[in-house]
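Practice problem 4.
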């Protein structure tokens, strides 16, 4: 079991600790506010655009983050910070001396600290990028599962295990992906995860409804989480114990969110007026309220649990006492202590120069000393702040990325050969994975597969049979034990290498994101392979983008694809997924036709996971069985497959036409080509293995004169060069025709682009291809129109 001992360091008294944290919290509030102010009001603005930043969202979180980063967190913990609290995170690192003033001054500027925490661009340690709300929350649970893999294998010592913490806004709890993850977390017995909600009851547009007040507790507790609700701060709780206090508490409990927020904005006098009116029959409560002046009353009413260090430290100690996942609902006030606190429009509110000046004076920061890390603190408070900093476990965090040794990926000749029999790319993929599973190498032990309930139908079954499913506790396959015949043997064990997910595709991509960050998070590379039906990539698209954005490395095998899965019908036929693949940075889209191409591409995809400058790969595969080409996989052919295209039939002389096809359309392209060749012996047949690689290479080469790579010729320019300048091109793909129609621009050739543009229906291949004009006669018609 991971070390879950409470974090209190005995060197500082509780009182000194709290005073020091309070001083540091004040610095976070100031530095975050000032960083945003500087970007908007001081730094020269060249384009008139509002720079932005979220002072209110930061002020909501400073107490929480002070308690965590200056006392509770240990370097082995991994944290996802609410996107718009990024200035607070950078201020934390600034106080530790690991972030520069220059970076703070360039907040939201080119090369400066990013608007939202970014693993790849920020210069401080960021464990998980955030930005698209909800995803940074869920990914922490999946990362805890990846930690469990390493713990279960004995590759990570229990004392090195950390906690996976998300600091989220309450509006994030509206994102459905959180509940999808919750279900998966329960099924997989995930642990050591804390989701800490900045419960300010405001979203972007408005104050949120109180209707969900106690529902979150129910939902999370049902899923096995402990829920800690920190509604009131210690001073409030003390007030409730005084005569009349219970009635005050009831009034607060009954107060709708919008009224509470409005009174918070209006301040002490407004609180007094309203309380006096509503509680006129409670003399004792009115007496209690009269003991506070307006300012103190205003403070009392807003010093909720999430702004109270005593409450927070107690809660974090309690949370640390067990590995059960925790939902910590910390009530807060959005924009606390800022002039727009509680105002429903404060999400993007910025203090005016006058208002920030007032805050500066209130916090005792001298003009000109705004960037002083500990400016404005009295000598005594400064000493306490320094003492807390000196004993905070997080101070040991390294800024630089570690670089564990690389894993050797098999060479092409070491990659299993799926053979030459009639086969589909999906089958070839399954065979290679199955054969890899026979091996006991370090590389193979690092492959972890995952699938949202389509393991069997995407052909991962063989791999799973051999390597088993991951679970912290072992269990046999009941069907096997009872000798009931089944080709699938699903035994679970701590050494298992497959993570079976429920159908929710969002979870697939978040799982791939977490597995794909294993090297950065745990110094241990994992080669994640996820399978999905191609059309349902769309379901998890934002999570896919999220995984790529933070440079998680993985392989996605999407199959079946296109209208080629004809009898499955229109709801399962993917049309635009090639464009998704081409448009997604960090992901290389491949669409092989033959088994040997799958072999070359899959090896490259594994290698790209490991390579420093590599990335993730998306293999768009098919269930269509094709006769394989009888050929040897020469080094040149392998290179061309990886370069994105090769001549299946080279054009001769100044050929006036060529057919360029991708993936499962190879037979139709070949059939049309054979007929075309009778009249035009010089025609060419171009096999395209990756429209994405070709396009990117072409783009890079075309901008090369301006990027210092002058004279570079792209692969596609080189490949198309044997064709006559005016030659026509018929392009063919079972997907959006624009995937390939750009080929005409490479050398200014005319193009007829064939592909799918309309939803399809059930049918067999001849009908389906005829309907979508993908058959040989459509290709010949297109060729004729080009030659006319
Ligand atoms: C998926 C997604 N949708 C919309 C947004 C735009 N957005 C940014 S913050 C936000 C509301 C945030 O409210 P909350 O999570 O409660 O944070 P607070 O600022 O109140 O702390 C929205 C809608 C986003 N970043 N991501
Ligand atoms: Mg909120």
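Answer key:
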């Amino acid at each position: 079991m991971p070390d879950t001992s409470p974090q209190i360091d005995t060197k500082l008294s509780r009182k000194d600790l709290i005073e020091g944290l309070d001083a540091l919290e004040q610095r976070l509030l100031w530095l975050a506010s000032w960083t945003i102010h500087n970007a908007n009001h001081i730094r020269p603005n060249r384009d008139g655009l509002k720079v932005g930043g979220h002072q209110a969202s930061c002020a909501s979180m400073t107490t929480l983050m002070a308690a965590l980063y200056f006392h509770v967190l240990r370097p082995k913990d991994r944290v996802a910070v609410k996107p718009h609290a990024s200035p607070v995170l950078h201020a934390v690192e600034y106080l530790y001396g690991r972030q520069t003033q220059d970076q703070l001054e360039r907040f939201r500027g080119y090369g400066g600290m990013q608007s939202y925490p970014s693993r790849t661009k920020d210069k401080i340690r960021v464990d998980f990028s955030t930005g698209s709300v909800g995803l940074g929350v869920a990914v922490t649970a999946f990362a805890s599962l990846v930690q469990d893999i390493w713990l279960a294998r004995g590759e990570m010592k229990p004392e090195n295990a950390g906690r996976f913490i998300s600091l989220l806004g309450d509006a994030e709890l509206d994102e459905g992906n959180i509940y999808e993850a919750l279900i998966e977390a329960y099924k997989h017995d995930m642990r050591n995860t804390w989701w800490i909600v900045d419960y300010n009851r405001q979203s972007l547009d408005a104050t949120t409804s109180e209707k969900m007040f106690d529902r979150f507790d129910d939902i999370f507790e049902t899923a096995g989480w402990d829920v800690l609700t920190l509604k009131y701060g210690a001073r409030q709780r003390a007030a409730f114990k005084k005569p009349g206090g219970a009635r005050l508490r009831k009034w607060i409990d009954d107060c709708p969110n919008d009224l509470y927020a409005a009174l918070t904005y209006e301040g002490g006098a407004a609180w007094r007026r309203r309380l006096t009116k509503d509680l006129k029959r409670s003399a004792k409560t009115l007496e209690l309220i009269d003991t506070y002046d307006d300012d103190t009353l205003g403070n009392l009413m807003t010093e909720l649990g999430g702004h109270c260090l005593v409450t927070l430290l107690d809660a974090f100690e309690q949370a640390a006492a067990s590995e059960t996942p925790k939902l910590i609902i910390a009530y807060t006030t959005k924009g606390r202590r800022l002039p727009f606190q509680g105002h429903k429009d404060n999400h993007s509110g910025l203090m005016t120069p006058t208002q920030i000046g007032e805050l500066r004076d209130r916090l005792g920061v001298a003009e000109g000393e705004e960037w002083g890390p500990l400016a404005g603190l009295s000598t005594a408070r400064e000493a306490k702040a320094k003492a807390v900093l000196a004993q905070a476990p997080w101070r040991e965090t390294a800024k630089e990325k570690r670089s564990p040794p690389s894993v050797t990926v098999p060479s092409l000749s070491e990659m299993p050969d799926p053979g030459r029999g009639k086969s589909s790319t999906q089958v070839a993929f399954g065979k290679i994975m199955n054969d890899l599973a026979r091996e006991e190498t370090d590389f193979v032990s690092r492959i972890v597969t995952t699938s949202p309930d389509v393991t069997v139908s995407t052909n991962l079954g063989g791999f799973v049979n051999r390597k088993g499913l991951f679970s912290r506790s072992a269990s046999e396959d009941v069907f096997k034990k009872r000798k009931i015949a089944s080709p699938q043997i699903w035994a679970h064990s701590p050494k298992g290498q497959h993570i079976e997910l429920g159908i929710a595709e969002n979870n697939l991509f978040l799982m791939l994101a977490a597995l794909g960050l294993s090297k950065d998070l745990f110094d241990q590379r994992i080669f994640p392979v996820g399978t999905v039906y191609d059309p349902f990539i769309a379901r998890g698209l934002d999570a896919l983008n999220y995984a790529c954005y933070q440079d998680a490395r993985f392989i996605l095998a999407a199959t079946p694809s296109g209208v080629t899965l004809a009898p499955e019908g229109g709801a399962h036929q993917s049309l635009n997924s090639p464009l998704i693949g081409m448009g997604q940075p960090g992901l290389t889209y491949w669409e092989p036709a033959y088994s040997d191409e799958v072999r070359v591409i899959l090896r490259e995809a594994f290698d790209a996971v490991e390579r420093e400058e590599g990335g993730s790969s998306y293999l768009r595969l098919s269930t269509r069985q094709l006769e394989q080409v009888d050929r040897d996989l020469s080094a040149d052919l392998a290179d061309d497959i990886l370069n994105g295209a090769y001549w299946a039939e080279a054009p001769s002389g100044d050929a006036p036409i060529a057919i360029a096809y991708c993936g499962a359309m190879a037979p139709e392209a070949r059939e049309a080509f054979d007929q075309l060749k009778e009249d035009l012996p010089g025609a060419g047949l171009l096999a395209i293995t990756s429209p994405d690689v070709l396009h990117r290479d072409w783009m890079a080469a075309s901008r090369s004169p301006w990027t210092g790579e002058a004279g570079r010729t792209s692969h596609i320019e080189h490949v198309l060069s044997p064709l006559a300048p005016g030659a026509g091109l018929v392009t063919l793909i079972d997907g959006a025709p624009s995937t390939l129609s750009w080929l005409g621009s490479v050398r200014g050739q005319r193009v007829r682009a064939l592909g799918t543009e309309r939803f399809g229906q059930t049918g067999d291949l001849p009908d389906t291809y005829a309907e979508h004009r993908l058959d040989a006669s459509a290709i010949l018609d297109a060729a004729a129109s080009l030659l006319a």
